[in-house]
Specification:
single chain; mainly alpha; Glycosyltransferase; 9 strands; globular; binds glycine
Length: 369
């Protein structure tokens, strides 16, 4: 591993993020325009990405213990209480939101208030479990039940909130639900070649698997890269929490598929099945996959995973990374969805996972999942 290279990148991230936090204390960014973060506290306090900037701040606090990072993260966590009190604003993304805010705060500061918030979020997440189908329902709808049977691969990343709650409460119910969802996802989402679909629709009364949808990818049957990355990292995390071999086997199967698709320039497209034009790149998929690959390297000792992660991260560091303290965003060229107008833009979750991955490489990450 090129330790000195990654130490230098980590030092530059720390220097940059000090300046970014000083400019943005309490802001909840989703993207940046002309180098300046937006603020979801005003636009949509229930948005699924609202925990990522706090997660980045906690990662830097865990490493540096600089108060500026902690103070900004705590402000964000408090603001998310409006979401916690909104039944319609609570969905399967509670892991993304409260693992990276409240669980992070509890782990690093011991705050009982934070623990309480995270347990409330875990209870809500557990309540979304469909007993007939063995899956956690994804999004809400207007109350007409149209999406009652929808599950999405992204949810694999929310399961650690349930594993955490079981550990805290010495009550296996939460982990039972997480494990059942992961087992269902393994059977219903993962294809023979190791690729995964984004959305699976179940019949919500019987639990029967009906069909899959292309979701944020290029189309039906395609291979949305962020979804592949959620699966890779998500199954690896379920393995770390349960030690269930089938989750490790699945994570490795998805990882082999992902590694085999990496293009020559090492920059990840938005969909591995997308046509040459319009070409879309998603830096966030690369950063998420790199985190999962590093965990697989830790779990198996296979250097192929570390090499793959470093290849992805080096391409980002050299071609897509803005280390200037003058601009708020860290990664460029994130893409919301293949057909979305939001393409080749900064996305806060790209910044989070890139930072997490770099800190993993220098042995300074705080494990938040
Ligand atoms: N649906 C969450 C994502 O865009 O990855």
């Amino acid at each position: 591993m090129e330790r000195a290279f990654w130490q230098d990148i980590a030092d530059k991230i720390l220097r940059k993020e000090r300046a970014v936090a000083a400019r943005n204390a309490g802001r909840i960014p989703y993207t940046a325009e002309s180098g300046a973060f937006d603020d979801m506290a005003e636009k949509n306090i229930c948005w699924w990405t609202n925990g990522f900037y706090a997660g980045l701040l906690w990662q830097l606090y865990g490493w540096s213990e600089e108060k500026i990072f902690r103070a900004a993260a705590e402000k964000i966590e408090e603001k998310l209480d409006r979401n916690l009190l909104s039944a319609q604003g609570m969905d399967h993304d509670s892991g993304f939101k409260w693992l990276l805010t409240s669980v992070a705060s509890y782990r690093l500061t011991g705050s009982e208030e934070s623990k309480n918030r995270a347990l409330l979020a875990a209870n809500d997440l557990a309540g979304r479990f469909n007993l007939a189908g063995g899956f956690i329902r994804a999004w809400n709808d207007g109350g007409d039940g149209k999406t009652a049977g929808w599950a999405i691969i992204d949810c694999m990343m929310n399961l650690p909130l349930l594993y955490w709650a079981s550990g805290e409460l010495h009550d296996p119910r939460f982990a039972h639900i997480a494990r059942r969802h992961a087992e269902t996802a393994r059977k219903a989402f993962v294809r023979e070649d190791g690729s995964v679909c984004h959305i699976v629709v179940f019949e919500p009364q019987t639990g029967e698997r009906l069909y899959s949808l292309g979701g944020q990818g290029y189309g039906h049957g395609s291979s949305w890269t962020r979804g592949q990355a959620w699966a890779l990292y998500g199954f690896a995390l379920s393995y770390l929490h349960t030690k269930e071999q089938s989750f490790l086997v699945t994570a490795e199967k998805v990882a082999r598929y992902f590694l085999a698709q990496i293009p020559e320039n090492s920059l990840i497209p938005a969909d591995f099945c997308q046509p040459p034009e319009p070409a879309r790149e998603d830096s966030s998929a690369a950063a998420i996959a790199a985190c999962g690959l590093i965990e697989l390297w830790n779990a198996t000792g296979s250097e192929a995973y570390l090499n793959g992660a470093e290849r992805l991260l080096r391409a980002l560091a050299e071609k897509r990374c803005c280390l200037s303290p003058e601009r708020d965003e860290l990664l460029e060229n994130g893409t919301v969805a293949y057909h979305d107008a939001g393409y080749h833009i900064p996305l806060i979750y790209g910044d989070y996972f890139f930072t997490e991955a770099v800190l993993k490489l220098i042995g300074k990450q705080t494990f938040l999942w």
